[in-house]
Specification:
With 289 residues, the chain is of the alpha+beta class. The chain has nine helices and ten strands. The chain has two domains: 206 residues, Aminohydrolase, N-terminal nucleophile (Ntn) domain (Glutamine Phosphoribosylpyrophosphate, subunit 1, domain 1), CATH 3.60.20; 69 residues, no CATH class. A six-stranded antiparallel sheet has the order 7-8-1-2-9-10, with helices on one face. Strands 3-4-5-6 form a four-stranded antiparallel sheet.
Length: 289
Amino acid sequence: MTYSVVAVDDDTGAFGVAVASKALCVGAHVPWGKAGLGACATQAWHDLRYGSEGLALLEDGHSAASVVQTLTHGDPVAPNRQLGIVDHRGHLASYTGSRCMPWAGGMCGRSYAVQGNLLAGAQVVEAMADAYEAGSLLPFTVRLVRALIAGDEAGGDRRGRQSAALKVWRAEATGTPSDVIADLRVDDAPLPVHRLLELLPIYWLEHGTPAVEEAPALSEELRDRLARALAAPAEDVERALELWASEHNLERRVLPGRVDPVVLEVVERSEGAVLAEAAAAPPQTGWPR
């Protein structure tokens, strides 16, 4: 009833799950993970225990394959379940029970596992794998969602579309809310995977990290430009910019004594234009890490 990709980012070590289904609120049940440990997707006749206990097993030092073996051993309903998992060492496993509704199956590649059940056919997971491998230059979040898009276009869930989700955790735990890098859900929509892709530029805009080396110093010329755009006195432009950024959920992009080029562009142009450009060509820098 669901297809998913579970992966580890080769560049940052972050763990991620992207999932879609013809079921309501798939993001509430399938993706599980924890910074510093790994991530998993529990689906088909999903068991939330596979998520919570799977993470506990990872914390105890079990490998991805060992977690699958431990969870399914002695579970009478295991033949109806499906699981994809990545551990903190980057090892992956994909399990499909023998009684999962056809077509059902999965595969593992370098740094990712794809799996699904009740699909249009094997071409769905094959397309997801191909898209994930082809997206090596994309930001991790974009790469995960692009894999879902490929699965959707290959037929996806053979019953139709309803919900999709993306969740990403840091490679190392900090014990703070920032351990979850991304948490996006589309719970009920005609084209949920495509809507998830549309949300990514907004996510990048609001949560992206400004590149300090690319941010010009707040010169007199920049002060004047910002003063005109913000309708504020030049001497108060920094405070005006802070207030404006807070109102627009861009406070993470405020830099002391400098101006994030993205913020400057949004101030001087319409936010919609910036988002449209980001959607057409996802930025390679500035994604949350």
